[in-house]
Amino acid sequence: MGLVVEFNWFMVVANMDKILAENGINYTVKSEKRIYPIGFQIPLIIKGQGCVGMIKILKTVIDQNETKIYFENTASFDTNSEVASHYYERYLDFKNREKEINP
């Protein structure tokens, strides 16, 4: 028996509606068990749109079927900016490499 856990260096959501708030703290819910680097800043990616900012992971709550990730916004980007483009290109590159490794 094993435990499948996904480690993430990007926060990727389908759209901004997937970002919720609870007691003034932002969070999103992801399927399955996921690990994020608590206390670190990571890029916030909106699928098909780009990198919209940086967030700091505050905590994660993992249960049987999903992970709730609490975070705070630390920076906002124009998706056309050089920094946003850099992070989005890294994300897309990673996704393409992941498909090669795990077809």
Would you kindly provide a written description of the structure presented here, covering whatever features stand out?
- There is one protein chain.
- A 6-stranded mixed β-sheet has the order 2-6-7-8-4-3. It has a two-stranded parallel sheet with strand order 1-5.
- The longest helix has 20 residues.
- It contains 1 helix and 8 strands.
- A hairpin with a 3-residue loop joins strand 7 and strand 8.
- The two termini are 23 Å apart.
- With 103 residues, it is α/β, with parallel strands linked by helices.
Could you give the topology of this structure?
Elements: E1 6-7, E2 11-13, E3 20-22, E4 25-31, E5 34-35, E6 41-46, E7 50-62, E8 66-76, H1 82-101
Parallel strand pairs: 1-5, 2-6
Antiparallel strand pairs: 3-4, 4-8, 6-7, 7-8
Question: How is the biggest beta sheet arranged?
Answer: 6 strands, mixed
State the share of residues found in helices, binned by percent.
10-25%
**H/E series:** EEEEEEEEH
Total helical elements: 1
Q: State mean pLDDT (0 to 100 scale).
A: 92
Secondary structure category: alpha/beta
Strand order, sheet with most strands: 2-6-7-8-4-3
What is the strand tally?
Answer: 8
Q: What gap, in angstroms, lies between the N and C termini? A: 23 Å
Bulk shape: globular
